[in-house]
Write a structure and sequence with these properties.
The chain is mainly beta. The protein is 12% helix and 39% strand. It contains two helices and seven strands; from the N terminus they run E-E-E-E-E-H-H-E-E. The strands form two sheets. A four-stranded antiparallel beta sheet has the order 1-6-3-4, covered by helices on one side. Strands 5-2-7 form a three-stranded antiparallel beta sheet. The mean pLDDT is 83.
């Protein structure tokens, strides 16, 4: 996934149960980052975004503005864009997006957790409108 300015990841999500889970994105130059969707964040990866409005058992529309969030993680790690980005236009490259239940050493899960996604879509910004006279 090429993450340029204006790129968003959109989907509908519903979680039933109490075990922590979320998305983990592998980003060239930054490593793994996470988006907690149910329960607390998993140890070991910075939080990219924490979606609001997610309630157990209810469907929610999730929209993740990826570019500013990746820029913020890079800044917090002290990574300059030229060190991390891999395209000529300084875009981020996400090499994998995975959903996983987080490690649960406290036994918070009940064993009957259900996580559902609908309409997953990654979309870039609309191209600029042509100038008058073009």
């Amino acid at each position: 996934l090429l993450v340029e300015r204006g790129t968003t990841l959109r989907f509908r999500f519903r979680a039933a149960g109490s075990a922590p889970a979320g998305l983990r994105l592998s980003v060239a130059g930054l490593g793994d980052v996470q988006v907690p969707l149910a329960g607390p964040e998993a140890p070991g990866a910075p939080v990219l975004l924490r979606p609001e409005g997610l309630r157990a058992g209810e469907w929610a529309d999730v929209r993740l503005d990826l570019r500013p969030a990746l820029d913020a993680v890079a800044a917090s790690k002290g990574i300059a864009p030229a060190q991390a980005r891999t395209t000529w236009d300084d875009d981020w490259v996400v090499t994998a997006v995975r959903f996983a239940r987080s490690s649960d050493p406290g036994g918070a899960g009940t064993g009957d957790e259900v996580y559902e996604f609908e309409g997953v879509e990654a979309a870039g910004a609309a191209p600029p409108a042509p100038a008058k006279g073009d």
